[in-house]
Design brief:
heterodimer; A: 154 residues; alpha+beta; Butyryl-CoA Dehydrogenase, subunit A, domain 3; 10% strand; B: 203 residues; Immunoglobulin-like; 2 domains; six-stranded mixed sheet; three-stranded mixed sheet; 33% helix; Myelin protein zero (chain B)
Chain lengths: 154, 203
């Protein structure tokens, strides 16, 4: 029982950490001498400039931040429900928030993929933060589904 | 002992005014403007000393993507010298007041090539040690949306909906519970009334 609990919490925390790293470090695209991401564009030639103020990149920023908020909220709710739920009850609320967080990450990554030719020059490949965002999405989804299926015992 | 202290303090007080302290220069961080408009780049400084007559202001410009900076403005000895050969000839005007520690310049009729970093360096002898301050100029063809407006709007709307749903949920539960409570009270009250009426009739 304890093992299951630890495993679930570990999965949730892994997804949360990936979300944080992906949003903050965010090396979303890399080239030979430039990196550009959600918040700044850096190049070795002319230093770092703040990111372009297009509508789409702002929406990606908002959606990633929202996914972090929802994932943190679901962790908090999980601990609340762990102690207050009656026996046999399901962690619906926790699972809903976690699934919402995974949906937000998915939509953020999709928007970035579709709109990136607009603000990223050709020849740049996607960086590791972009990949982390795509990895965080199924982790969060699986974690949320486990919460919805799980029943509280003892 | 006392005389020794007095002597050292006098000597120190004599030496300290001769040293120059750091001067702090203030410009904006970033300026946005439309093509064809004018913009005033402000520069002021803070110094512990009175504004001397030899105060100097100088502005240099480094275009975006370039590593070289050129000098476009210099004020010294009471006279302002504006750029007459470089990219800002006939477009630069000095609108500052050196007596009030203001070394602002006015750029007229902005073009898209004017994107870049403007650095202001001021010296107030003997206060000459200071770090020049830079302001970044961004020229747009149409007014863009400020960074973070849409981000904040989306986050605010979603969190607001969340709070609204929670409030509505608790309100519904409260109302339903109150209705159930009032129904049970009225039923209980009716039974009590019938019981007392029967008792009265019996009596």
């Amino acid at each position: 029982m304890l093992l299951l609990l630890l495993g679930i919490i570990f999965l949730h925390l892994a997804a949360l950490v990936l979300l944080f790293v992906s949003t903050i470090v965010s090396v979303w695209t890399t080239g030979e001498s430039t990196t550009s991401d959600l918040w700044t564009n850096c190049s070795t030639a002319s230093g770092c400039n703040p990111a372009s103020t297009g509508e789409w990149i702002q929406s990606v920023q908002a959606v990633m931040i929202l996914s972090i908020i929802f994932s943190c909220l679901s962790l908090f709710l999980f601990f609340c429900q762990l102690f207050t739920l009656q026996k046999g009850g399901r962690f619906f609320l926790t699972g809903t928030f976690q699934i919402l967080a995974s949906l937000f990450v998915m939509s953020g990554a999709i928007i970035y993929t579709v709109m990136s030719p607009e603000w990223v020059p050709e020849g740049n490949s996607f960086g590791y933060s972009y990949i982390l965002a795509w990895v965080a999405f199924p982790l969060a989804l699986i974690s949320g589904l486990i919460y919805v299926i799980l029943r509280k015992r003892e | 002992m006392l005389t020794f202290l007095a002597l050292t303090s006098v000597v120190l007080l004599g030496i300290v005014p001769e040293q120059s302290q750091a001067i702090a220069i203030y410009t904006g961080w970033e300026r946005h403007a439309l093509v064809g408009s004018d913009i005033r780049l402000s520069c002021s400084f803070f110094s512990w000393r009175w504004t001397s007559e030899d105060v100097t202001f100088s502005w240099t410009y480094r275009p975006d993507g370039s590593r070289d900076s050129i000098s476009i403005f210099h004020y010294t000895g009471g006279a302002a010298y504006v750029d007459n050969k470089g990219p800002f000839r006939d477009r630069l005007e000095f609108v500052g007041n050196p007596g009030r520690r203001d070394g602002s310049i006015l750029l007229k009729n902005l073009e898209l090539n004017d994107n870049g970093t403007f650095t202001c360096d001021a010296k107030n002898p003997p206060d000459i040690v200071g770090r020049p301050s830079s302001v970044r100029l961004l020229v747009f063809e149409k007014v863009p949306i400020q960074a973070g407006v849409i981000t904040g709007a989306i986050i605010g709307v979603v969190l607001g909906l969340l709070v609204l749903i929670v409030v509505i949920y608790y309100l519904m539960r409260f109302l339903v519970a109150r209705r159930v409570f009032s129904l049970s009270v009225s039923k209980h009250g009716k039974k009590k009334k019938e019981g007392s009426q029967q008792r009265q009739i019996k009596v």
